[in-house]
Amino acid sequence: MWHPKTVDFDNRMKNLFDEVDNYIEDLYGEHYPLHPVRLPRGEAANPEMDGLFNIGANFTPGFGSELGRGYIIDVSISTLEKVDGNIRLEIYTAAAEKVRELLPVYFPERELTVHRDGNHFKILGDFTLGAV
Fold it and tell me: What's the rounded Cα separation, in Å, for the pair 91 and 103?
């Protein structure tokens, strides 16, 4: 059983990343052929399950990172084609910029930022749930 504040946080994070997924699909969704077992964009009930991209975030405690704990922005590209490293970085950067733009919309009460952490982009800031 999850606390209602955790459920709310997770739901807002999911909605934010669904919007980022749509944005990146609009920009890059036609650049590579879709993996043969992946549904075309818009054919699944969940944007994570269709289209060229699955974009989300995974919490990391930040061991070994100078920036510490946060949510690593995860961009998966569902294609069998080799994606050039420069294009991959361009896609990751565009996703991170969109996350940076949307964080104050989805989490206006929190101070959340996006920073580069090695090969990844990470959401940093206040993840506390307040009084429970």
Answer: 18
The helix/strand/coil state of 25 is helix
Tokens for 22, please give them.
């749509």
What digits encode the pLDDT tens for the residues 25-48?
A: 999 999 999 999 999 898 998 988
Name the residue among 51, 55, 88 with its Cα closest to residue 71. Answer: 55
Q: Assess contact for 54 and 48: CB atoms under 8 A.
A: yes
- Which pTM does this prediction carry? 0.92
| Contact of 56 with 17, CB cutoff 8 Å | yes
Q: Cβ(118)–Cβ(65) under 8 Å?
A: yes
3-state secondary structure of 106: helix
Provide φ and ψ at 8, rounded to 5°: -60, -45
Task: Show the tokens assigned to 72.
Answer: 């690593």
